[in-house]
Structures are given as structure tokens and as C-alpha cells.
Protein 1
Amino acid sequence: MSGLVIGIVIAGLFVVVLFWFIAMYNVLVRKRIDCDNGWSQIDVQLKRRYDLIPNLVETVKGYASHERETLEAVISARNQAVAVSSDAAHAMEKGKAEGALTMALGRLLAVAEAYPNLKADGSFMKLQEELTGTENKIGFARQHFNDVVARYEESRQTFPTTIVAALFAFQKRDYFTVENEAERAAPKVSFK
């Protein structure tokens, strides 16, 4: 009889451990999916930003064609940012490219300040407004992404979930960060 009890206890422990592993695995999967979703929200807003930039450059070009170096820098930074892989595994590289693009946009908008006719142009004002709204949405999407990455990493690195993460190769996720302090600021947009 005692062998039967021991067998039932061992089977019961096995079932409890099995359900625990399944539960921890599912927690990690949900958090990984949250990270992917957070990244896709950033990607949507970055795509919107990329689509706005050529229109903004063309509008400025009509008024400030001799600012060729600045215009080319913006287009070059945009193309480099577009070229970086748009998946969460490349968040650090994407952050660097986006920081360079933000700086180039800041220089472009500073150039625009020197041209009163450009600043008064309705399409330029509308593009500035759309860019400002998009920059805000990108900021919120970055914050959300970094929040879900933090929760994922916390689960992945804490005991005992770390055992399940190691067994099933749950990979580390990088935060979406901007390296250079000057790049952290959104482009300044003025409606004077």
C-alpha cells in the first residue's frame, strides 16, 4: 500500500511540476508576443515618419534650394533608417539610425526658420504639424515597447522562470534607445 501512496505522490508532484512549466512557458510566450506587438507599433509610426520626410524635403527645397547639404543629409539619414531591419532583434541599430534621422530633421527645421515665406506656406505648416504628431506617437510607441521589454526581461531573468527561459531558448530583448544625448530630443517645430 505504501508503494502505491509513494507512486501517487510522485505522479502528483510530476503533474504539478509539468503544469508549472507549462504556465511559465505560456507567460514567457505572452510577454514575447507583447514585445513583438510593441515593436510593430513603433514600426507603423516610423513608416509614417518616413513617408512624411520626402514631402517635407520637397517643400523646403522649393524655398531653400541652396541648402542642398542639409536636404541631402535628411534624405541620406532617412534612407539609412529605412535600411535597418525592422524587427525587434535590431532595436539598438534602429535606435541609432533613428537618432541620426532626428538630428537631420532638426537641422532641416532650423533651416526652415530662416525662410519666412516657407514658414508661412500652408503645406509646410501642415507637414510640420503631422511630423510633430508622428514624433509624439513614436515616443509613446517607444515607451510602450520598452515597458513590455522590461516585463519580458524581468520574467525571463527571475528565478524560477529563468529555468524555463533557458530550456526553451527565450532570447534577450534590447530596449529601443537613442545613444547620443543630443539625439534624444525631438525636432523642434515652431509655428511663428
Protein 2
Amino acid sequence: MTLSDFAAFFATGGPALWVIGVLSVLTVAIGLWKIVELIRLGIWRSAASHAPKTPTGRVVQAAQLALQNPRLDREMAVNETTRVAKTELFALRQGIRPLELIAAIAPLVGLLGTVMGMISAFQALQNAGGSADPSVLAGGIWEALLTTAAGMAVAIPASVLASWCEGITEREQARMEDRSMRVFNDTAPVVSPQNAAA
């Protein structure tokens, strides 16, 4: 398919199809960037590693260091660990909001293009009067519906990608909570029955 074919295709759908084309490019770009970013953050590295090479590993390390810091009491250590966890989760969630926005906007842009195309088709039918050619009307409707299909074709992958990234973030958040709580529970002071009853 040549460049002129692409231009003719987008010209068929009008301005709405061009907007959807831009949204599709953004979806691919954000998707590729997100995958690279997840690799950089170490999301698929071994969770058993004690080194801070994963988001959970960095949170666990922060919890350990906070507990070892003599200037921090237990509550302050928890707050410091929570701060690090929020930073890690923010990095994991970057890019999800734009994907969700594209998933919401693309079908609406497609629907707008369809409505505008239908208006143009029926205006042409009205201007033609009694000598209207049904094939002309059918062609106009086909061109109008093209934008709806294109909008859905962009929205579906964007929505799937956003859900996939959100699932990864939720799974990592659960790991952070579980393993950081283990660190704090392992270092919790032992309460004797006499003190507990007091």
C-alpha cells in the first residue's frame, strides 16, 4: 500500500479519520514506551531477588533501611516505606491514563465522523431530488460508517493495553503490601502474656 493509497483512504473518512489515525499512532507509541518502561523498572525480574531490582524489592529495601534507622520510630518507618511504595506505583501507572483517554475518545470521534458523513450523504440526496442515485447514498453511508469502525479498532487495543498495565500494577501493589508487612511483622516486639493481660 503506497503513501497515496493511505492518503486516499484517510481522505475518504474525512477529518475524523485523520484524528483516529493520530490516536492509533499514539496508542502504538505509548504501548511500546510502556513495555520498555516496565522492563526498565524490573517488573519481570525474579521476585525472589533480594536486590532492589524490582519495584517490590525496592520497597522491601526501603522498609528494612527505615527500621534500621535509629532516628525513625516504627510509625515513621511505615510512613517512609509508604512514600517509596507510592513513588514506585506512580511510575508503574504512568501511561495508563492516556491509554484510557484514547479508548474513550476514539469511538466518539468515529461516531462524530459517521454523523457528519451521514449528514453530507442525506444533503446530497436532498439536492439530487427525484433523480437521486441510490448507489451514491450507499457510498456516502459506507464512507461515514468507516470512521466508526476505525474508532473502535483503535479503542479496543488501547483499552486492552490499559487493563493489562493496570493488572500488572495491582499485582505489584499486592506484593509490595504483603512483603513490606512481613518485614515489619518480623521485627515487631514480642509481647509477653503478662504484658498483654495488663
